[in-house]
Every structure is written in structure tokens, then in C-alpha cells.
């Protein structure tokens, strides 16, 4: 990367829940100033941490692990107040009866895995054994008493009644805490924000415009989701309508509570300050 030919490397998650941020993004207008890499959340989290990606949505937990290196974009997240429909625990027994159970976790997420651990440890006080498996419900339930699926894997599994109890972790978090939960946040590496403020500002504005256009008329997103993944138009309209892509004080408050619990339970090593990017400046969120 040089001042004469600045290039920003963008990460893109291949899950429907982030479609609105990218659907109308004008990639071609940035030319060779922007390189795009499509990956699952855990891969993108790792690439950001290693400096191979400069900007993009990452898991909220990954932000906390490297908060000293990142800034958060305001008005951009994947959040929910109550149901998410794509972060689902499938289980044979009620949550309060999972003591001693084995729970299969996917290898594709950090935020949701730790959200489940927080809920079970903090609110249900059950001790369970966790194993990691590929995100396939049949495989998970052959080896465990419960299986966690996220994203499109969870959506597809939810369309088929296999007799399991199903807990939406977004709804469970809100029921237990009364707060929002932000599962993905959009970040920029601090160094890149300092070195290329104008290009970063232009990318941010393009993200917001894509979000605005996507949510103003869901028809195209719904049609594409139905064509590529299946399901009904009604399902996808409700899905996109139910998620929030905002990231402001209400979302910050819920995320800070999640981080506090993660520190308390030893999932994070230190307290986390939310540092919010502003055009040519940074705002630090204080409680």
C-alpha cells in the first residue's frame, strides 16, 4: 500500500444476514482502490487480526480481542432485539436440564459460541462439555446432546422439524437481560483510518447507502435469498425486517454487557472500550 496507489482490503462475509451492507455497494466505482475477500466469519476475524484485511464486518467477539487495533463504524452492525432466526441451539432437553451434557459448536463463529457459554454459565448455571464439529445438525446430534448452528446453516435446519427443542439465542439474551445483542460489527484498522481518511470515509458512505437502499425495498434481497437458499418469500421478508443494521447507544449498551460477562467468565482477558470511528476523529464510548 502506497500513498500514490492506496488500496484497502475489504472482507465480506458470505451469510445472508449481512447482505444489506453489501447488496448495493458500488464496488466498481472504487476500481483498484478496493480489494474484496469473501470468507466465513472466523476466517475474516483471523485475517483482520493478522493485518491481511483492513475493513469489514467481523464478529463482535473478535473486535473485543483486538480492540486496541480497530475502530467501529457507527450505524453498521448485525444486531437484534429478541429473535434472530439464524443463531439457533437445537437440544433434546430444556436448557436448565443440560447439566453434564455435550454441546456441539460450529467452527464458523466466535460471538455466538461465547454468547451461548455466557447464557448457560451465568443464567442457567449448568456445566457442560463443548466439542467442535462441522455445521451439520445430523452429525452434531449424533455426537452430542445439543448443537449450535449459525447463519444459513441454522436457517435451513430450522425449516425441518426433527423433534428437537430450538432456542433462538438472540431472543434468549433479550429475555434474560432486556438488552440488544450485536453479533457482527463493522471495523476499520486504526492505522488505515489514519493513513487514508478520505477513502475510508467514502467506503463508509457507500456502506450506509447500500444499507439504506436494501432496507427501503427488500424485494430484491428476498427474491435472491429465496432463489439461492430456498424458503418462502414471507420467511425472508420477516428475516430481513427483524434484524437491525443500526449501531448506536442501545446496541453499544448491550454489547458492553456481553463483554463484561465475557471478562467475568474468563472468555476475554480485559475490559473492552468501544471506540467509534467518526469522519476524521474517534469517539470513545463510556458508560
From TrEMBL:
<keyword id="KW-0456">Lyase</keyword>
<dbReference type="InterPro" id="IPR030868">
    <property type="entry name" value="MqnA"/>
</dbReference>
<keyword id="KW-0474">Menaquinone biosynthesis</keyword>
<comment type="pathway">
    <text>Quinol/quinone metabolism; menaquinone biosynthesis.</text>
</comment>
<dbReference type="InterPro" id="IPR003773">
    <property type="entry name" value="Menaquinone_biosynth"/>
</dbReference>
<comment type="similarity">
    <text>Belongs to the MqnA/MqnD family. MqnA subfamily.</text>
</comment>
<protein>
    <recommendedName>
        <fullName>Chorismate dehydratase</fullName>
        <ecNumber>4.2.1.151</ecNumber>
    </recommendedName>
</protein>
<dbReference type="Pfam" id="PF02621">
    <property type="entry name" value="VitK2_biosynth"/>
</dbReference>
<comment type="function">
    <text>Catalyzes the dehydration of chorismate into 3-[(1-carboxyvinyl)oxy]benzoate, a step in the biosynthesis of menaquinone (MK, vitamin K2).</text>
</comment>
